[in-house]
Amino acid sequence: MKQTISFEIEDNLLHSLEKIAAQWNMSVAQYFQRLVLREIATQDENVDYEQLCQEALAELKQGFNLGGQPAKRESLYER
């Protein structure tokens, strides 16, 4: 199954891609898919998502110092 995506690209870059793709007898979409998207996808296979998730969860549990002081309960519920 294929999906269609769209994005903006500068005119001069598009013209360069069209010339290169034409040399390979491909459309810009085919050229982009073969050379860029597949490269990104194969690099992504080396990422250990489980490890990244564990690190992110550990950071969330630790919390983030935003530089302020915790609000006192009484001041939050003043009427």
What does this entry look like structurally?
The structure is a single chain. The chain is mainly alpha-helical and 79 residues long. It has a domain at 11-60. The chain is 61% helix and 0% strand. It contains four helices and no strands. The protein has helices at residues 11-23, 28-44, 49-62, 73-76. Helix 1 packs across helix 2 (28-44). The longest helix is centred in the middle third of the chain and has 17 residues, at 28-44. The mean pLDDT is 80.
SS field, number of helical segments? 4
Report how far the terminal alpha carbons are from each other. Answer: 58 Å
Strand-residue fraction?
A: under 5%
Low-confidence stretches: none
Determine the mean pLDDT: 80
What is the radius of gyration computed over CA atoms, rounded to a whole number of angstroms? Answer: 24 Å
Amount of helix: 55-70%
Main β-sheet description: none
| Class from secondary-structure proportions | mainly alpha
Q: How many runs of DSSP E, i.e. beta strands? A: 0
Order of helices and strands: HHHH
Shape: elongated
What's the SSE blueprint?
Blueprint: H1 11-23, H2 28-44, H3 49-62, H4 73-76
Provide the descriptors you would attach to this structure in a database record.
about 80 residues; mainly alpha; elongated
Summarize the structure.
The protein is 61% helix and 0% strand.
